[in-house]
């Protein structure tokens, strides 16, 4: 597949540049990470016919860092969000930092690598390292469900992002998209079409509990997913009908803030 070849070439070329330019500092490395994303998005449009539109850009806080919460359905939204969002880093599985070329890029953008099985220690890591990133002018992107989800499927939202926002006072900005329709989970095929990205209004953590922050973000994300994607709405109804869907808003705090 042409795109796969272009993706490999882009990853090797720009991943090497990220390593070579290490002595010149993060600013130069960030520049080449941005060019890598440009190359991947151009390749997607050229080889597969995938493009994207964004609504709600006015909801992105100006001159301040924040905590982004996004649905995670495929690899496609990683490149799409990286392409237009203000400077940010990601919370990833720690093992990805060891992947040649791609992992080098993650290190360049100061990604937060965690062990998802670490439980409370993983949450503490996100709060500690995430606070450092926010204070250094880098926003933090999290996937509250912790993994790629099939279209229409949801699960209990993790609260690490809400804890991070609560402890630092930074706002949470929820994001919905339908990227999973075009590059599906565990699928090598990419289908042409237009990815729709919607950015929600920032959620101020002041005077809200961690549970309230999480429930508010989840309610908006799941409702917006159904609005922009009839397929998501249809599959969500299917999962709910067979009792295989997390629709509860009841969350129990394991920490006190």
Q: Could you walk me through the main structural features you see in this protein, from its secondary elements to its overall organization?
A:
Helices cover 44% and strands 14% of the residues. With 257 residues, it is an alpha/beta fold. It has a single domain (50-241), classed as Glycerol-3-phosphate (1)-acyltransferase (3-Layer(aba) Sandwich). It has a 7-stranded mixed sheet, with helices on both faces. The longest helix is centred in the first third of the chain and has 23 residues, at 26-48. The chain starts with a helix and ends in a 16-residue tail after the last helix.
Low-confidence stretches: 248-257
Strands, total number = 7
Question: What's the mean pLDDT score?
Answer: 90
CATH topology: Glycerol-3-phosphate (1)-acyltransferase
Using the coordinates above, name the CATH class.
Alpha Beta
Q: What is the terminal separation in angstroms? A: 50 Å
For the sheet with most strands, the description reads: 7 strands, mixed
Order of helices and strands: HHEEHEHEHEHEEHH
